Amino acid sequence: MTRPETKADAVEDMIRLLDIETLEVNLFRGISPKTGWQRVFGGQVIAQALVAAQRTVEDDRHVHSLHAYFMRPGDPKVPIIYEVDRIRDGKSFTTRRVVALQHGHAIFSLSASFQFDEEGFDHQIAMPDVPSPDELAGEAEIRDHYLAHAPEPVRQYWARPRPIELSPANLQDYFTREKREPVQTLWVRPTGPIPDDRKLESAVLSYISDMTLLDTSLYAHGTSVFSSQLQAASLDHAMWFHRRADFSDWLLYVQDSPSSSGSRGMTRGSLFNRNGTLVASVAQEGLIRQRSPGQ
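Given the sequence above, the corresponding structure tokens read:
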């Protein structure tokens, strides 16, 4: 009998997922987990593409920014081929472009810039004052007490073992359909240990960065990505890596959506270590299109 998958297993699966296969110089292959989803999670494609770029960069250079576009939905049933273009190897910065391919078409592209560590000016914004994750409901309590009357897609999402655990500062955001401020604050962390490897840390952080951003852009409209009347998908994604993340503890993900228009919603995010250190900044625009009746 196969034992049920645990949260720690889910983290190990994520790490294996990011250990993409080298096919040839500048050519790599990644696979997707069997989750039952109709398309590949965007954070997975971002992270795998970043790993592909990292495999072609010298070890003393680390990603400081990435900019990506989602072009087609990823098919989870077939591998993804990642082709790396070595744009530039400069004295201070290294630039790579990655195209992800499936069924003979580009589904995603990523440009990433790498730099060796340098000393210089150093400042950051302050982390907002929010309840600590120890004061908030954990995922087990959320499942037991809050999900009984939630929509079926929401229950399925929270029920399956996942590599990243969420602890929302305001649970009402997940269950109300009232219009509210497009702001979200939640604690996130891997559900198992992450090896002390800076390149892997950056890939895991990019995986996390795609989570819940579209949700925030929808709060002002009283709906969610789980609505059957909504077509939602990430369109582009940008990320800046400021400092190393501490995956031995929770990270605070602070998000706000300054605008939606043209069937698109834009969201910004800041990721902090629990001690208040800003580790990364994120920006994303996503499709949030209302379906016509009968579609």
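The first strand starts at residue 21 and ends at 24. Try to locate this feature in the token string yourself.
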